[in-house]
Amino acid sequence: MATWYLGLATSGHDPALALVDETGYVRFAEATERFVQDKRAWGIAPDHPPHLQAAMAACGVDPARDRVVVGTSWSSVKAAIDVKVHTALLPGPDTLWLRGLQAQMQESAGRSLLRLGLGAEPAGVMRFDHHLCHAVTACHFTPWADASCLVLDGEGDVGAVSCFVLEDRRLKRSWRSWGPGSLGTFYAWLTSRCGWDWRLGEEWKVMGLAAYGRAAPGLLECLEELLTVDRGRLRFADDAAIAAIVAETARHARAPDAPVMNAADLAATGQAAYARFADRILEEVAKEGRTDLILTGGCALNSSYNGTIVGNTPFERISVPPCPADDGNAIGAALLAWMKESGAGQIPAGDTSPYLGTTPDAAAVAKCRHASRAYKVTDVSGRSAQAVAALLAEGRIIGVFRERAEIGPRALGNRSILADPRRPEMKDRINAEVKGREPYRPFAPVVLENDAGDWFERAQPSPYMSLTLPWLPSVRHRVPAVVHADGTGRLQTVSEDRNPWLANVVRTFAQKTDVPVVLNTSFNIMGKPIVHTLDDALAVLTTTGLDGVLCEELLIEKPM
User: How much is the pLDDT for 219?
Assistant: First the structure.
């Protein structure tokens, strides 16, 4: 009999599950939205029975013999806490709805094990502090033994900021904020002011649009009045002050059907305000005296800000996990359950690989070998990286569906769409013909880690696309499709040990073009999660301007 530790992200949004074995090794982790193909998967259980069954099968869990210990990513039920619902920025009904979903997920956690035959009665559930789950996940993905660890998100069990210290891979909380003050809430409100819906995860659109605008000094001063940062802790202004600020910003707001660029200055100003708030928080964290920073929580997805930390603060290195938002907390909950039961005091260091999800179904791949009537299918075993690089150099757009899926919201080479960044028209072509999204939306450059300094200012490792950095002015013209309007790019660095296949694509592309940079974007269309099955991938190939899909070692192309 083996023991498994099942971690569940139980926020009510962005559910996910993770499985850790009895040695403390993370064997599987995946967001529920991928399996159900429903963006953010609001209200869907993280132990959705078919998804859980597939995950256990992938790990070799024996339902007849094995034991499963369950951990959740919250220690409390938010709806049961007698606190006033803060309604000055986000509608009160939205908050009540979200808290109701969290209560449902906490209550039902682990019940799917009954459906799958693991036990005759509900399993006992370990419940862990939300920010502690964030911190443990982030520390698991860093090789460092000592660092400061900052959690910034929408809310935790009691507040939206927590500071931890990692010493010899042992984690201790230094301080936390209390009450209604949240950078996550601020950015959600900013998203709605810009004409988008935070419930759909459209904060990305604000970050991208900010590059096209300029921060307006008067508006920036107004936004800064929303939050007070006191010794790193956040607190919103009183309701009357917030109402005045909301009224003042109304004239800058964009209606959802208005031109996108109407909100460019508001987006830029909101991003600048976010940066000032975050800088003040980091001032307090820096007092711990450490120069290595681990940053996590949903706000750690703000790559534009992350890229300013080294060089602008006392921190000399920054580490952000591939899954800093609530889906990543499934890993933290599973590891904490293992640590509690095993008595381990140190957070186990992973191999830093984000490739912890589902692999392509072998039967579906085998079936596709005989799909020549609909597609041109070529076996490129042993030379798939070279084949893809050659097609990219010809201007083809290729989806990649190979090996294990990434945990987190960013495609890092295994569920990616790749293209040639040298072609100025490529950005518009992919946005219009493949992704179906706004034309201003940017794409990420993939660069070999050792070459990053030849292309970027303040170059540093960014294996999970966590940092947006300025391109060196002398090279921007060579890769126009991945240079954003403000001269930056959301960098992904690759190396032989992290992703040898993608590193081989970049290297081969450089041999053909003299440009060691490849365009990378997630393998999905706007509004949909990243593809999960081969059928999902082929649907994108069939219905969009995608030219081909590499599925494992099969190259599937549209007939010429």
Answer: 96
Provide the Cα torsion 278, 280, 285, 288; round to 10°. Answer: 160
Residue of 316, 325, 327, 274 whose CA lies nearest to 296: 325
pLDDT confidence of 125, banded at 50, 70, 90?
A: very high
Structure tokens at 113: 């094990």
| Residues contacting residue 67 through CB under 8 Å, at least 6 positions apart | 1, 2, 3, 4
Tens of pLDDT, residue by residue over 186-209, are 999 999 999 999 999 999 999 999
227 CB contacts (<8 Å, ≥6 apart)?
Answer: 181, 183, 186, 234, 235, 236, 237, 277
Determine which helix (DSSP H) or strand (DSSP E) holds 156, and give its type and residue range: none
299 pLDDT more than 80? yes
Q: Which superfamily, per CATH, for 3-140+326-342?
A: ATPase, nucleotide binding domain (3.30.420.40)
Asked if 471 contacts 457 with a C-beta cutoff of 8 angstroms, the reply is: yes
Q: Which two tokens stand for residue 423?
A: 């072609």
> Which whole number is the average pLDDT over 427-449?
96
Helix axes 239-249, 217-224, angle to 10 degrees: 160
Q: How many CB atoms lie within 10 A of CB 77?
A: 17
Provide the edge-to-edge strand list for the sheet that holds 376-379: 376-379, 554-557, 548-551, 398-401, 415-419, 517-522, 444-448, 488-494, 467-470
Of 266, 259, 268, residue with least CA distance to 210: 268
Using an 8 Å Cβ cutoff, are 491 and 472 in contact? no
Hey, which CATH number is domain 362-557, 3.40.630.30, 3.90.870.20, 3.90.190.20, 3.40.50.10150?
3.90.870.20
- The torsion of the CA quartet 454, 389, 542, 373, rounded to 10 degrees, works out to 180
β-strand pairing of 444-448 with 488-494: parallel
User: What is the tens place of the pLDDT at every residue in 235-255?
Assistant: 999 989 999 999 999 999 999
Beta partners for residue 170, in sequence order: 167
Burial, 495: exposed, middle or buried (Cβ in 10 Å; 0-12, 13-18, 19+)?
A: middle
Q: What is the mean pLDDT of residues 144-166?
A: 97
